[in-house]
Each structure stands twice: as C-alpha cells, then as structure tokens.
Amino acid sequence: MTYINENIWEQLTIEELSEITDLSQSRFKHKFKEHIGRSPIDYINSLKIEKAKEIIPKTDSMKDVGYKLSYSSPAYFSHVFKKYTRMTPLEFKNRFADLSSQIANSNQTESF
C-alpha cells in the first residue's frame, strides 16, 4: 500500500507490484482483493482520480492532468475519470468553478 501511495504518479502495473511483493500476479491480485476489498487496478485508479480531482481546478489542460497521472492517453483518462465520478474531467472542472463562484458570491453578500 505504501509503495502504491508513494508512486501514484507513475504507471503502476500488476507485474511490477507482484514482483515487489514476491508473489505471482494472480496470487497478488487475489491477496490484494482479499485484504482491501477491491482489485489493485480499481484501487490505483480510485487514488489517481482523487489526485486528479485535486489538480483539475488548478490547471487548464485536462490532457496534462491525465499524462501527469501516467494515463496512456487523454481519452483513457477521461474514460476512467467518468467511470469514477460520473462526469468528464472538464465537466468536473466547470462544476468546481461554478461552486467556487457561488461560494465567493455568498461570502461577498454575507459581508454586507
């Protein structure tokens, strides 16, 4: 778990993780799911999407976010992001911007 968390920006593979744990790939996947309750890929993707949600509001390029998180293509990043959030990265960014704007406006109104 520590290795995954420390290397979340890298392209992590089952092969790499199984070698680190000195288990076969199938044994690693089985043990991981047994202990964590989800597949290694699902766990890794969920962590990556949480990281993406942190940096999307601060960047203009969704493509750069996907590449920063080591997704192979912007389309695949968008697909995975939508699978976990039910919206595209751009929809998330726009929703976040709208929410930030509403909060800023309500803070200005309250200060009167």
Automatic annotation (TrEMBL):
Keywords per UniProt: DNA-binding, Transcription, Transcription regulation
Positions of the HTH araC/xylS-type domain: 1-95
Origin superkingdom: Bacteria
Coiled coil segments of this chain: none
GO molecular function term, any single one: DNA-binding transcription factor activity
Keyword Cytoplasm belongs to the record: no
The protein, known as: AraC family transcriptional regulator
Organism this protein belongs to: Membranihabitans marinus
